[in-house]
Write a structure and sequence with these properties.
Elements lengths: L7 E6 L5 E6 L10 H12 L7 E6 L18 H19 L5 E5 L2 E3 L1 H8 L2 E5 L3 E3 L13 H9 L1 H10 L3 E2 H7 L4 E3 L4 H13 L3 H16 L2 H17 L1 H11 L10
Parallel strand pairs: 2-3, 3-4, 4-6, 5-7, 6-9
Antiparallel strand pairs: 1-2, 7-8
Helix pairs in contact: 1-2, 3-4, 4-5, 8-9
Length: 262
């Protein structure tokens, strides 16, 4: 894929170029999001190079993403506002519901739309410089990029309500404690940790990764009986794949690596 937006870049890493590293390149604007960047993210995740099996999103400079580029805000009527928000929803769905697991490597500001982007990823790694906020409530606006759906799934409705009503800012340690990130690493090491995790994920059976991305979130929202039935269907599909059968045989023959205490 050839990306024509200079605000977004893609490089491939790994022995088989199996990990895509996606970089927001608006450091002078603290990687604030505009419509062009959102559409570039959509197009990139819809057209990942063949062979990519995991991705990492991070920001250049001192911040992951400081949210919406307010200099590009324009007055919209209600209908225009709905369509604009839905465009963001569609774009970030390409991250969350695309073809590969996505890791957000976080540092500095993860604010507003930046937190909406991070919450669309499947794993979040934060370094010690990371801080989180949803300032939309204090600016007279409301989240429009899927944050009202995705962020409460990470931290609960009450905490998100508090962040928006009061402008509360969470630091890296407290953010990891409440669930905004799954990993907390030393300053400057989030990208390295993200690539390490993505490389490990890329080695999984593709159908297992697909099930974790697409089936598990749906099962979590289904009634228990429906969820158990969906689980049974997905388990049968995953284990029927040739790669899965080979991995099970390796385990039964004592050739697979054993689980070790970390």
């Amino acid at each position: 894929m050839t990306n024509r937006n200079p605000d977004l870049s893609l490089r491939l890493v790994g022995e088989q170029s199996e990990v895509a590293v996606v970089t927001l390149n608006r450091a002078a604007k603290r990687n604030a999001l505009n419509d062009g960047l959102i559409l570039a993210l959509r197009d990139l995740f819809q057209n990942l190079p063949e062979g990519v099996r995991a991705a990492v999103v991070h920001g250049s400079g001192d911040h992951f993403c400081a949210g919406l580029d307010l200099s590009e805000l324009s007055e919209r009527d209600a209908a225009q506002g709905v369509l604009h928000s839905r465009m963001w929803h569609s774009a970030l769905d390409c991250v969350e519901k695309g073809t590969v697991p996505v890791i957000a490597a976080l540092h500095g500001a993860v604010v507003g739309g930046g937190l909406e982007l991070a919450s669309a990823c499947h794993i979040r790694v934060a370094d010690e410089s990371t801080f989180y906020a949803l300032p939309e409530g204090t600016r007279g606006i409301f989240v429009g990029g899927g944050g009202s759906v995705r962020v409460p799934k990470l931290i609960g409705v009450a905490r998100m309500t508090d962040m928006m009503l009061t402008g509360r800012v969470y630091n890296a340690a407290d953010g990891e404690r409440i669930g905004l990130a799954q990993y907390l690493v030393p300053g400057g090491s989030a990208l390295d940790k993200g690539i390490e995790l993505a490389t490990r994920i890329a080695a999984n059976a593709p159908m297992t990764n697909f099930a974790l991305m697409h089936a598990l979130p749906r099962i979590a929202e289904q009634p228990a009986d429906h969820g158990l039935f969906t689980e049974a269907l997905m388990a049968s599909v995953a284990q029927s794949a040739p790669e899965a059968k080979a991995r099970v045989r390796a385990f039964l023959e004592g050739k697979a690596a054993k689980v070790q205490k970390s």
